[in-house]
Design a protein that fits this description.
Elements (H helix, E strand, L loop, with lengths): L13 E2 L2 H6 L7 E8 L8 H6 L11 E5 L5 E5 L4 H4 E4 L8 H15 L9 E6 L4 E7 L5 H9 L2 E3 L14 E2 L9 H23 L19 E9 H10 L5 H18 L8 E9 L3 E2 L16 E9 L9 H14 L3 H16 L1 H13 L3 E6 L6 E3 L2 E10 L6 E8 L2 E9 L6 H19 L1
Parallel strand pairs: 5-6, 11-14, 14-17
Antiparallel strand pairs: 1-4, 2-7, 2-16, 3-4, 6-7, 8-15, 9-12, 10-18, 11-13, 15-16, 17-18
Helix pairs in contact: 6-11, 7-8, 7-12, 8-9, 8-12, 10-11
Length: about 450
């Protein structure tokens, strides 16, 4: 593309950064679907003006088209935003099922077969009027989970002070997944664990894959129909378990729940005790200052800076101590914190993409996904109730479009609860509500063991 190419607003086109380019490639092309369910009727007459006046419209990517030059290189081009084209109104009930099931079915369909149109900025808002639900659809190339959550919160207001937008539980900066204190011992650990985990990542890319189980598959699973269920946890219960395992975190508890819950579920599918189940977790390597939302709107090149880590679990029969799964998860994550696995994967893929193009970068990520069983991410939401366009938000649920794994897990905390969306391939895991109950029972057993 020539240097003098400019958008309709007279602003020079900006090249898409490397990681964002990956998210624009098939077969990934991920879209984040976020449902906010309200307790009152959606004010349809004022939505357009609310969006026009929101900080959302200050973000350059929400006002830019993604265009490609003759060589296939992607650029952001500023354009005029016609909000009407981004609003989709659905007045009828989606089904006779309860609202939660109907909305989950709608999100599952969106995650499987509804890409965003490239002839407008890559976002949409679906208004499920009969279900009092607003579904935000944002392409992952527009930002990472933390920044997109902050941008969506710019449309909301605090209940105690409607002039203010809500903030997440972590009011300050979130930083990369790296050790905080450095000394000789720490340096030696970092070198050892980095080499170890990078080799494991390389083996997973080349040939090592999870054994075929009732919840694993391989290439092409992202094309299969999906169904969605929700596991709901109380943050106080997770904190009770966290306090029972010294120096643990909510993420340790979450991984313990997943390990125990998957083992519970696989108990019903007649598996042996030697199966390894590997997950992938994205790690945000860029700092955010959630106390100043306008910083997130500085420029289009502020997008994704994400590495990945592998999370290997061994299927195990139920332990006498329900906290064992949390202790094992903590031990694993403590080692991961003493490695530069996430940073290494980001830098390596960045160098490969810059040197050989985006295609090898895409192949690496796709093969890693195909050789693992599940993907897990966790987004921190507001600690207090908030309103969206004057209505109190009952809960927030987020799920990305389908990746090449049979199980996609995404947890969002909000107002004392944490909802984990469980997106599964319909023909691989036909009963995701059973899997959700396994996760919920795992946490309750941990809590009861502590009390």
């Amino acid at each position: 593309m020539a240097e003098d190419d400019r958008s309709s607003e007279g602003v020079r086109d900006e090249p898409v950064n490397v990681v964002d380019r990956l998210f624009l490639q098939l077969p990934l092309d991920p879209v984040i679907n976020c449902a906010m369910v309200c307790d009152g009727e959606i004010p349809l007459d004022s939505i357009k003006s609310e969006i026009h006046n929101s900080l959302l419209m200050l973000h350059p990517k929400f006002r830019s088209l993604m265009v490609r030059d003759s060589g296939g290189r992607e650029y952001w081009r500023r354009t005029e935003v016609d909000v009407d084209r981004h609003l989709i109104f659905i007045h009828r009930r989606l089904s006779d099922d309860p609202d939660e099931d109907a909305v989950n079915d709608y999100l599952a369909d969106l995650s499987h077969s509804s890409p965003l149109s490239a002839d407008k900025p890559l976002w949409e808002i679906h208004l499920l009027v009969a279900h009092k639900t607003v579904v935000f659809r944002v392409h992952h190339a527009l930002g990472d989970g933390v920044s997109l959550m902050e941008m969506l919160l710019s449309l909301c207001r605090r209940i105690d002070d409607p002039s203010q937008t809500p903030t997440t539980i972590r009011g300050g900066k979130t930083s990369s997944y790296m050790p905080r204190r450095w000394n000789v011992v720490t340096l030696l650990k970092i070198v050892w664990f980095t080499v170890l985990y990078v080799l494991q990542m390389a083996f997973t890319f080349l040939w090592r894959r999870d054994k075929m189980t009732a919840v694993s598959v391989g290439d092409g699973v992202e094309l299969r129909p999906r169904i969605l269920a929700t596991a709901r946890f109380r943050l106080d219960d997770m904190k009770t378990v966290k306090r029972a395992v010294p120096n643990s975190t909510i993420n340790d508890v979450l991984l313990g729940i997943i390990s125990s819950g998957l083992s519970r579920y696989l108990d019903t599918r007649s598996l042996t005790n030697s199966d390894r189940i590997t997950g992938i977790a994205p790690v945000n390597l860029r700092q955010h200052d959630s106390s100043n939302l306008k910083n997130l709107h500085a420029n289009t090149q502020q997008g994704n800076r994400v590495g990945i880590i592998l999370l290997p679990f061994l299927y195990q029969k139920r332990s006498l101590d329900p906290l064992d799964s949390v202790k094992r998860a903590k031990a694993m994550i403590d080692k991961k914190k003493h490695s530069l696995e996430a940073l290494f994967t980001y830098v390596l893929c960045y160098l490969v993409a810059c040197s050989f193009g985006i295609k090898p970068f895409g192949i690496f990520n796709y093969r890693i996904c195909c050789n693992t069983t599940f993907l897990i991410s966790n987004i921190v939401g507001p600690d207090d109730k908030m309103t969206l366009w004057g209505n109190t938000v009952k809960y927030i649920r987020v799920i990305p479009s389908a990746f090449p794994q049979a199980i996609i897990l995404n947890m969002v905390s909000y107002a004392g609860c944490a909802d984990m969306q469980i997106l599964v391939a319909k023909d691989i895991v036909p009963d995701p509500k059973v899997l959700a109950k396994c996760f919920e029972k795992a946490l309750m057993e941990m809590k009861e063991a502590v009390e």
